[in-house]
Amino acid sequence: MIILTEGTLSLDEVKRVVYDNEQVALSQDTKINLTSSRNTVENMLNKKKTMYGINTGFGKFSDVLIAEEDLDELQLNLIHSHACGVGDPFPETISRTMLLLRANALVKGYSGVRPQLINQFIALINAGIHPVIPQQGSLGASGDLAPLSHLALALLGEGEVFYNGKRMNTMNALRDADIPSITLKAKEGLALINGTQAMTSVGVVAFLEMDKLLHQSELIAAMTMEGLNGIMDAFDHDLHQVRGHQEQIDVAARISEILYDSNLTTRQGEIRVQDAYSLRCIPQVLGASWQTVNYVKEKLEIEVNAVTDKVLHPKS
């Protein structure tokens, strides 16, 4: 069980939810903090404060005040107006990741959404209901507006989803899974779509696939060493320690561990003096690849746990 809190969601936890279908829940402390954050929005509305996108129009219409009785409709209209993506839908792995990452951004408590909204995300994730989200139409940056609008439709019982291997009307899927649809309150439409979760989800899934590929590459490299009676001296720890690149050191150590006590590898001079570059430079080549992937991982983990909404004053 992955518990969503105000803390950090790791890429390993994302992997467990997306690929292993691990269930998700919301911590009790986070529910309390979300309620407090929501009360901030309600209090500001009661004081008739002007707040962008909450009781005003959007973009060029930010100076247009919205009547109190129209605030909920404003949020729904925002979703409808931006759900205009085109092209083939993202794979279910991407839309499932988007559900998790957007929920994770909102639980930080800076967006003023109700706990009920997060619970709706969690219900869809745990039921395996994944929004149909067109791949084309996003601005990126904090403007994954179109993809996130299509995601938001699923929370409301609108649009289409993938469920049990079928593409279907969202209300049918929610009915089959016994999940009621929800309606949006002031601020929540804006909070749902002001984010980077489309491009971040694509990046996360690409990273997870690359991470798996590099681990497989090390196993393939080890098998190649055995198949060609490779010389293990090239993987000696001290040699790579002198070079100093940690990822290179780590690759040499892992392959040495895989091939420990192998009867198919050799030592220098037993068959040949040295192997071709493609064998003796395996740690250097794969080490450089790991450096790149680790850099990407660092940036993705920051973005996975970032708040990209127009935030309330922290914990105000």
UniProtKB/TrEMBL annotation:
Keywords assigned: Lyase
Family matches, as InterPro entries: Aromatic_Lyase (IPR001106), Fumarase/histidase_N (IPR024083), L-Aspartase-like (IPR008948), Phe/His_NH3-lyase_AS (IPR022313)
Domain of life of the native organism: Bacteria
Entry annotated with the keyword Lyase: yes
Record bears the keyword Acyltransferase: no
Pfam short name (any one): Lyase_aromatic
Protein name: Histidine ammonia-lyase
